[in-house]
Amino acid sequence: MAFLKSKTLFFTTSPRTPTKMIPEIELLTDAFTGRVWNTQSQIEFIEHLTENPHFEGQGSQKDMAFSARDRINRGPKALGFVDLKPTIQLTDAGREFVSNKRTEEVLLRQLLKFQLPSPYHRETADSDKIFWVKPYLEMFRLVYTLEKVSFDEIMLFGMQLIDYRHFDNIVNKILDYRAERSSFQGSYKQYFGHTLDNELAKIFEAEIKTGNTSTRESTDASLAKFKKTKRSNLRDYTDACFRYLRATGLVSISHKGRSLSIMPDKINEVKFILETIDRNPVFVNDERKFKEHLFNATVPVLYTDNRSNLEEYILRCSSTTKSQLDKKSITELKDLREEIIRKNKESIVSTQIQALKSYSLYSEVIDTYNEIISDELYDIPLMLEWNTWRAMTMLDGGEITGNFKIDDAGQPMSTATGNMPDIVCDYGDFALTVEVTMQSGQRQYEAEGEPVARHLAKHKKATGKETFCLFIAPKINEASIAHFFTLSKTNISYYGGTSIIVPLELDVFMKMVENSYGAKFIPTPQHIRELFDYAQEVANTAQDETQWYKQLQERASKWVAA
Questions:
Q1: 23, 93, 376, 380: which is deepest, by most CB within 10 A?
Q2: Under CATH, which number does the domain 359-557 receive?
């Protein structure tokens, strides 16, 4: 049980992508069901996790028990996918979630049941009893009511919605914020910073007045450090809120990812939720009843649980007849609805591919890269994956598959899951994996070095094709260069022989795209192949990794140049 000590909302931050809970829940319940969740089992869980092929993070070796609690208590437990007391058990909701069928629907039900306070999150006896809210439910209401809500607006005001009875006040604050922007003398960045300082001063007025500004993360009790920590916390929780709302499939994101709105064809679903679900927290002081409610995989009732609603959507969006639907069960109707949505996504992506191959989206792709470099986008790692898929699709005639998840509108939703490349390119007689990262410095080598080679080896084995890898980052770390150079010269059976991994800085890759756009001929897969053949050739003649890397950058910069 955790105690509510904050004066603002908080959301599940671990993991950042909800579906990444699935393999960890499976590992926990497969190996530890019936065990007591204590320091010993927590340490053993992290040890098992680090050996799992899906795991690509870094558990704290200093406090493995804390790492386990951070991964399991915040997400899987708080959302009712696992029960940790008296022993570890997979709940009915968890069983539905790990089945990987209709995960968006399962996640939505659990998010709508998350509440503050609860038997899992209690207010202390001497607190002001300020929480009375179902956070995700009210965030849906905020987006629905205002039609569009920006990241900054949720961070500034939405995070203050700790009691649903203050909802109208929060809406008015956001409307005032929008109205007063035009009269502010300065840039938007200055306006946002000025407003944030004012809001923090109001929220934490008592702490600031009494000098109670120490934080658990630091021994520095200065006001500047206190405000910096609170700003960082608000940003992290707002980011988590965005990600989990998007994972339900009910909201869409703007091009730059700075605002949310309800998906046009999901408005009825959200309206149903807002009209039927009680806004009051339930069973606050009864853990047994609360857990029964939280673990129940069939509550709350959703719009798509109604047969008539499912039939209306299917008849409107497909050529299926009413007589064909009459014989189907609710489950079969949901399957049919999902198939229609899947085909619609495929159609949207197909249209995008045609536009990319014609280079009609060239300027947009380059502009997006520039926005990534300038840190102007939300969820930059995701945008880097998606935009690189677009660039690779534009470059040549291969079949390019991005392993990131897209929403119903064809916009990127979440990065590729663990244990697979970010992008896979099939060129017929050979293949290419593409890995991208915003990581730099030693962290880049530690987080990306081994997984990149492992993904490449896995794809070689699965396809039986000669396969290379393209590694793209704004800045390539020296340790990564040395690692990839060594792999290109070393026959390692675990990696399927030598591994040809070409590291390119993002501006060099952008130059490749520019050269492709300006070429007097249409680039072919053979032009891609030549770059990797050159990398292998130079690896055998270069005196060291620095020379090898320099020559690769020069060759890539002149790729298909007229």
A1: 93
A2: 3.40.91.50
Selection from 484, 477, 390, 387 nearest residue 439 by Cα: 477
C-alpha distances (whole Å) from 216 to each of 124, 202, 225, 226, 436 are 18, 21, 11, 10, 34
Summarize pLDDT for 219-274 with one digit per residue, the tens: 777 888 888 999 999 999 999 999 999 999 999 988 677 899 999 999 999 999 99
Peptide bond between residue 117 and the one before it cis (omega within 30 degrees of 0): yes
Copy the structure tokens of residue 173: 């604050």
- Start-end of H helices in 157-279: 167-180, 188-203, 205-210, 223-247, 267-276
How far apart CA 303 and CA 461 sit, in angstroms, is 44
> For 42-71, how does the pLDDT look when each residue is reduced to its tens digit (9 = 90+)?
999 999 988 876 565 555 567 899 999 999
Please report, for residues 133, 141, 159, 240, the alpha-carbon distance to residue 167 in angstroms, rounded to integers and kept in the order given.
Answer: 10, 9, 11, 20
Helix 478-489 with 545-557: angle, nearest 10 deg:
90
pTM for the complete prediction?
0.89
Task: Name the token pair of 429.
Answer: 């007689």
What are the backbone angles phi and psi of residue 376, rounded to the nearest 5°? -100, 0
The residues spanned by each domain of the chain are 315-355, 359-557
CA 549 to chain centre: 32
Q: Which backbone phi and psi does 140 adopt, to 5 degrees?
A: -60, -40
How far the first Cα of the chain sits from its last, in Å, is 65
Q: 140: which 2 tokens?
A: 């849906």
As to burial, measured by CB atoms within 10 angstroms (0-12 exposed, 13-18 middle, 19+ buried), residue 357 is middle
Give the count of beta carbons closer than 10 Å to the beta carbon of residue 223: 12
Q: Is 186 left (phi over 0), alpha (psi -120 to 50) or beta?
A: left
3-class SS of residue 185: coil
Torsion of CA 290, 295, 301, 306, to 10 degrees: -160
Rg (CA), the chain: 25
CA distances to 7, 133, 218 from 231, in Å? 13, 22, 15
How high is the pLDDT of residue 397?
72
Cβ atoms 525, 428 nearer than 8 A: yes
3-state helix, strand, coil in the chain (%, to 5): 60, 10, 30
